[in-house]
């Protein structure tokens, strides 16, 4: 694994827990953690359960005892590491957004195509499609329970930098992150809605806003932000919020909002889908519930019902607790690790593939272009 901050911790938990709750064809071995600073990497390897720590990620590509490279670094390093790892014959799991530009995403998707011909696989870490409720949502749409889809309404609402005193972090630096709310959390709702519908966004029109253009430099980092250094400030070079309309290839109309300034909303990934025969609604802050409206019911008793997606028949749930006990944010990462291992062992391409990641990157770039042109942009 390369990188050991928030996503490194989430992926480490997933690799450790996956073989303990799911029957896997092969057992993941947490062999090497890679970080830029030797002391911090060693401490992280100890804390997160990795056998060894190194500071040069390239060194692991030459090792015969390493078969998978898990990329948990900021987006500006994804393309270099993923292409080199795939060309070295290592399977790759790469955090989202897959890349910082379409050109990088194209290079990664081409490397994945080359690698697949040699049985080497690649996946993008859009973890929310592995929340059981969103798996059930996809099943309901695929079964036709919503009929023809007219509307997709998606929001991803956070507020961790609504305070102007919150210091700069890599997520606010275009060089590192590629974009702000658009790529960091907007990418999640683009992937999640395309996953639920089994359809792709073909056209967008959007706008990007930076509410706070200057922030204190951080002296230390932890989690998503850090503590401000005294006095010095620096520029925010990414969007704080992104809003865009979308047309899906199958005809559905979408509205998307990704913001880090929805004061009071902590991790509210919300999706509502309206179809001719029914609707569904989801809010990650109530993640074990999927709301479902069956439009074919007697109008006298019809209404949105709260499905507890905690039953053995629901996606992934049977491996965990008895009916009704529920899951959390971390379980989606374990499901991601399970599906990755199973696909690699079966010799099939994991989903979302790097081609899926490239499609998301094209949507993000089209939104950025639309924000400049003020007009609809083809994806
Ligand atoms: C911050 O916005 C963040 O950590 C994202 O980067 C993650 O992808 C998401 O899972 C939680 O929020």
TrEMBL record:
Keywords: Oxidoreductase. Residues 137-280 form the GFO/IDH/MocA-like oxidoreductase domain. Residues 1-117 form the Gfo/Idh/MocA-like oxidoreductase N-terminal domain. SUPFAM superfamilies: Glyceraldehyde-3-phosphate dehydrogenase-like, C-terminal domain, NAD(P)-binding Rossmann-fold domains. It holds the Pfam family GFO_IDH_MocA. It comes from the Bacteria. This is Gfo/Idh/MocA family oxidoreductase.
């Amino acid at each position: 694994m390369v990188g050991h901050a928030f996503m490194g911790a989430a992926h480490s938990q997933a690799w450790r827990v996956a073989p303990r709750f799911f029957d896997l064809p092969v057992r993941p071995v947490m062999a090497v953690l890679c970080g830029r600073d030797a002391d911090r990497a060693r401490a992280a390897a100890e804390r997160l359960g990795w056998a060894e720590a190194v500071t040069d990620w390239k060194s692991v590509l030459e090792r015969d005892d390493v078969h998978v490279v898990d990329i948990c670094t900021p987006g500006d390093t994804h393309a270099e590491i993923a292409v080199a790892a795939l060309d070295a014959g290592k399977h790759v799991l790469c955090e989202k957004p897959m890349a910082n530009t379409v050109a990088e995403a194209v290079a990664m998707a081409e490397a994945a195509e080359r690698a697949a011909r040699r049985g080497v696989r690649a996946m993008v870490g859009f973890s929310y499609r592995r929340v059981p409720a969103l798996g059930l949502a996809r099943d309901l749409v695929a079964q036709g329970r919503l009929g023809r889809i007219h509307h997709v309404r998606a929001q991803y609402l956070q507020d961790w930098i609504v305070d102007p005193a919150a210091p700069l972090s890599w997520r606010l630096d275009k060089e590192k992150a590629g974009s702000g709310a658009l790529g960091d959390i907007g990418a999640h709702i683009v992937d999640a809605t395309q996953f639920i519908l089994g359809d792709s966004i073909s056209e967008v029109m959007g706008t990007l806003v930076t509410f706070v253009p200057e922030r204190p430099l951080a002296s230390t980092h932890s989690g998503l932000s850090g503590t401000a250094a005294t006095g010095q400030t620096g520029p925010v070079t990414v969007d704080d919020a992104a809003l865009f309309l979308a047309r899906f290839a199958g005809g559905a109309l979408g509205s998307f909002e990704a913001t880090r300034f929805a004061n009071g909303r902590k991790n509210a990934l919300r999706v509502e889908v309206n179809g001719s025969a029914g609707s569904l609604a989801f809010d990650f802050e109530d993640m074990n519930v999927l709301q479902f409206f069956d439009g074919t019911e007697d109008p006298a008793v019809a209404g949105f019902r709260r499905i507890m997606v905690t039953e053995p028949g629901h996606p992934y749930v049977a491996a965990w607790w008895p009916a009704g006990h529920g899951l959390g944010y971390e379980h989606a990462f374990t499901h991601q690790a399970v599906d990755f291992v199973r696909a690699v062992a079966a010799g099939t391409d994991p989903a979302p593939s790097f081609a899926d990641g490239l499609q998301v990157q094209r949507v993000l770039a089209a939104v950025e272009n639309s924000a400049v042109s003020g007009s609809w942009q083809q994806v």
